TrEMBL record:
GO terms for biological process, alphabetical: DNA repair
Protein name per Swiss-Prot or TrEMBL: Hydrolase
Record has Cytoplasm as a keyword: no
Record organism: Streptomyces venezuelae (strain ATCC 10712 / CBS 650.69 / DSM 40230 / JCM 4526 / NBRC 13096 / PD 04745)
Alphabetized Gene3D superfamilies for the sequence: HAD superfamily/HAD-like, Putative phosphatase, domain 2
GO cellular component labels: cytosol
Keyword terms, alphabetized: Hydrolase
Record Pfam families: Hydrolase
């Protein structure tokens, strides 16, 4: 049976979280909202609507949401050419794909933003599919994006591992019944990732690549080989 390696992109494969923080902070400031950058940082990884609800509350005037999101998109778009993948990101995806894993990106990014992120990673040959927040009714931390990614890969939850950098990634994977791995390169503390459900935590893609033989990927591989006997 096939196995799936599910990857968040922003802050996990691409060093983009700080750029999102600046773009959202400025968009919110332009909209008359004074939100500290540390709060914005903790919300990165949520789809736009959920991010605004998390930062501004469910009782806010939603009439300005589209303007805030558009402002963020415009501000963040100025950084597309500066996006850089973390060391080892492309090699990690290629190694997993070469080892029989179906690599699926699970992201809130879409359209030009997703194109820019994929260009930064530069590992399209290793990527089997992409699941975006637009494909499902609810984005992370709901399990919907993970479940959609599993359907694209054609594998059950127990044959998959999710790699992400935010508590939202960990919560979504846990709710979908998928083993999850946390990376510290997105700026979220180890304890927070573990509390949210991370089975293991590594510094970044390069660190995970160096430990694939002992990471949760090895557990899923061993269970697959055992069931095939």
């Amino acid at each position: 049976m096939d196995r799936a390696a599910l990857f968040d992109v922003d802050g996990t494969l691409v060093d983009s979280n700080a750029l999102h923080v600046v773009a959202w902070w400025e968009a919110l400031r332009q909209g008359g909202h004074d939100v500290p950058t540390h709060a914005v940082h903790r919300a990165i990884g949520l789809p736009g609507e959920k991010l605004l609800e998390h930062l501004l509350g469910p009782d806010r005037d939603r009439s300005g949401d589209d303007r805030l999101s558009a402002a963020h998109d415009t501000l963040y778009g100025a950084y597309f050419e500066r996006l850089r993948a973390f060391d080892g990101a492309a090699e990690l995806l290629s190694t997993l794909a070469g080892g029989g894993w179906k690599v699926v990106l699970v992201t809130s990014a879409k359209d030009r933003e997703l194109e820019a992120l994929r260009a930064a990673v530069d590992a399209d040959a290793a990527i089997s599919a992409t699941a975006t927040a637009d494909d499902v009714a609810e984005g992370k931390p709901a399990p919907d994006p993970i479940e959609h990614a599993l359907s694209l890969a054609g594998v059950p939850a127990e044959r998959a591992v999710l790699v992400g950098d935010s508590v939202w990634d960990m919560e979504a994977a846990r709710r979908a019944g998928v083993l999850c791995v946390g990376l510290l390169c997105g700026g979220i503390p180890r304890a927070d990732l573990e509390d949210a459900g991370a089975a293991a935590v590594y510094d970044d893609a390069k660190d995970l690549l160096a430990h694939l033989d002992t990471a949760p990927f090895a557990k899923v591989r061993a269970e697959r080989e055992s069931s095939a006997e």
